[in-house]
Amino acid sequence: MQVDMIVVTDGSRILGLGDLGVQGIGIPIGKLDVYVAAAGMNPKRVLPVMLDVGTNNQKLLEDRLYLGLRQPRLEGDEYIAIVDEFMEAVHTRWPKAIVQFEDFQMKWAFETLERYRKRCCMFNDDIQGTAGVALAGLLGAVRAQGLPLTDFVKQKIVVVGAGSAGIGVLNMAVQAVSRMARINGIADKHQFYLIDKDGLVTKDRKKLDPAAASFAKYPEEIDGLREGANLAEVVRKVKPDVLLGLSGVGGIFTEEVLKAMGESNSPRPAIFAMSNPTLNAECTPADAFKHAGENIVFASGSPFQNVDLGNGKVGHVNQANNMYLFPGIGLGALLSGARLITDDMLQAAAECLASYITDDEIQRGILYPSVGRLVPQYIALQTSPYPVSHASGKGTPQKKEKEENGGQCIRDITAEVAAAVLREAVIEDLAEGHGEVGPRELKCMSKEETVEYVKRSMWFPVYHPLVHEK
User: Fold this and answer.
1) Which of 9, 70, 215, 321 could lock 194 by a disulfide, CB 3.0 to 4.6 Å apart?
2) Which residues, in sequence order, are CB contacts of 259 under 8 Å at separation 6+?
3) 437: left (phi over 0), alpha (psi -120 to 50) or beta
4) What is the distance of C-alpha 470 from the center of its chain?
């Protein structure tokens, strides 16, 4: 059995639900379903993994039907030893497999990412996937303001939520600023503000979380504000271009906060209420457009309907869904044969997604492709005339006319993102090739040829007829 893609969890922080123990196995299964549908991964070559290290959910420990270990979670060196053993076993058995970490509690999410990212081809979707989708939206927000992308370095951004996702977004945003500054020869200085449950994070904070320390402001940087200043105070004083929430606290973007955002100096303020599920969203799009103004750009983590603003105007709701990126990151890493998944590969993925939207769509407040339009244009018919390898499951699918869905397909987006990741792996000399395509062939491919190579490598289901029709 060959495995190309593994999604692993320990069930400790299932989004919106907390510690589910072994019952968190549904998350890796669901993510791999998306890999099959969106990235064309062969379902015979994917593996969901649940690391059962116990649970701290007392309700589960007392449930006689609970299937997992009935003991508190392992901690410290005992926990790391289990994950080490798993990663070593995977690398020994399937050295080319990509490993995606999913729904680990914050302390282990960061520690495992830093521990393995320089040794194995792996990434953490909660930290890096969420950050990549957010960065694509932030770059789109710059375009919506009518500014060049290089002006991202000047954006004032307030991030609410200092968990793995919030810190991940800030890390990637800082890397994007540094990259743009380096390329364009401008000052490398960002204007990002972090707010957690105790308010504005500054260097005066006692017991400052190490993960948040690099984003803590010095007193001289926050004239008129103080350590622990509340969200409304910070928004009124900073007048940010973007207010981004990954707090998991429903309704934290209150009417007061949203009205303060409406007074931003930005020509088109952006509000990202990215927490899931819907009840945990920082605000609703209706409230955002009502209190912050009709000119804002809005994105959410949960699905919402567009807002009718009257007079034929529509307030577009953008769903910042990780499915736009993680399938392409995994597929691009696999097809390149990348030894590692680097920050620049993730940046390339985010920038590719950001460039996917047209200028006309951006001006209408659209930052991401509409989920409703992501209907697969490739249909494998029951009587496919194309040969299909039963070993790989690959074949050339038949196409439906693009007019049926405007040419939008999740696999089209994944192919572009995967190609961007692959090309960056080649540039960084990390690509070792995949199957019969070696690193030399990858280096010789044009951008268009790389996208076609990715599409040809996708698995498609072919349903053979049970009854032969004469």
Assistant:
1) 215
2) 291, 292
3) beta
4) 49
